[in-house]
């Protein structure tokens, strides 16, 4: 790490003092589906990511990278060299943490080993950029109105660039020129492939064996790039006046979970057609096979305001989390009309369990993840001038602003 450099530049950076911001929760091994098995409460306002070998990683004490093992005991605690606001994007199979440090006028992409050593650091002018692990690669994805350089590759519009997880060297790049309405998200797989999705305008091509897609207006899309960057398949969300893909997740069988929204008509996924249920717009969850053909799809309630915030695929179900401001129905089970967070497990499109997290202040589902255990992060805060936030969820209490990092029974 570069603590000396940080001191010289008078920047936020490496803090070698222990990050003692977490309190271990009492384990509950016999809890039922959706209930809290174990976890920690912590300060800060960001979610955690799962470690492939078990446990989680999180940003603690603002500039610390903290890893917990499967029992939530603290595994490692290292100070980060950061100049802006660090965000933890994921962890590779080799336990390399992927950190995005957002600055004014650009972003730094950083890979940090378990020891705290920086494996690589890449500076880019992109402000809208993220990273996801995909086998022995890291996929940097985002949107930029101006051309960006990654080694010998230049991208613009929507883009995905494969970097070697061990050295950060660019391996391949894909991009598609788009306007300001475009957006992209991504989900990687152990085989090195990556699924990209979001919103596009006009035309979009992934190349390879995939067919080009074309929309007269902004529309949602989803497609797969293999480990070499070649397009495998692509499809757009057909039918409604407006649609988008907001969140993606991968299943162990190669399936792709897709969540997003649509308005203005039905949503046509070929063999799966979703009809509107909300007054203004609807959110949906669908699962596609590894070749992009639809397996099932379902509306995610019928409320006017129902933002989806996170999603994960377990060995059996798709788990989604969000919050609602109106009464929200999941196949007959209704969440009351108030701004609260919820987590639901969907099996073949049907709800297998549903839990609501509410209390004083605001609660958000910051992240969901699966690594043989189901993990959820719940961020809680109170607006300035309001009473302190408070949450009591299955004996996992949190008073004041902070985060609950939980393992839930699937």
Residues in β-strands, percent:
over 45%
Describe the global form: globular
Count of extended strands:
36
Low-confidence parts: 1-12
Specify the structural class.
Answer: mainly beta
Please, how many helices?
A: 1
Query: Within the largest sheet, what's the order of strands?
Result: 1-2-36-33-32
Q: What is the helix fraction of residues, given as a range?
A: under 10%
Compact overview of the structure:
The protein is mainly β and 410 residues long.
Description of the structure:
The chain is an all-beta fold. The protein has a domain at 22-78 and 358-410. It is built from one helix and 36 strands. The strands form ten sheets. It has a five-stranded antiparallel sheet with strand order 1-2-36-33-32, with no helix packed on it. Strands 3-4-5-6 form a four-stranded antiparallel sheet, with no helix packed on it. The protein starts with a helix and ends with a strand. Residues 1-12 have low confidence and may be disordered.
SSE layout and pairing:
Layout (H helix, E strand, L loop, with lengths): L2 H7 L12 E3 L11 E7 L6 E2 L5 E5 L3 E5 L5 E6 L5 E7 L5 E7 L2 E7 L5 E7 L3 E7 L2 E14 L2 E12 L5 E7 L6 E6 L5 E11 L8 E13 L5 E6 L5 E9 L5 E8 L3 E3 L2 E3 L7 E7 L5 E6 L8 E6 L4 E7 L3 E3 L2 E3 L4 E8 L2 E8 L1 E2 L1 E9 L3 E8 L8 E4 L2 E4 L2 E7 L2
Antiparallel strand pairs: 1-2, 2-36, 3-4, 4-5, 5-6, 7-8, 8-9, 9-10, 11-12, 12-13, 13-14, 15-16, 16-17, 17-18, 19-20, 20-23, 21-22, 23-24, 25-26, 26-29, 27-28, 29-30, 31-34, 32-33, 33-36, 34-35
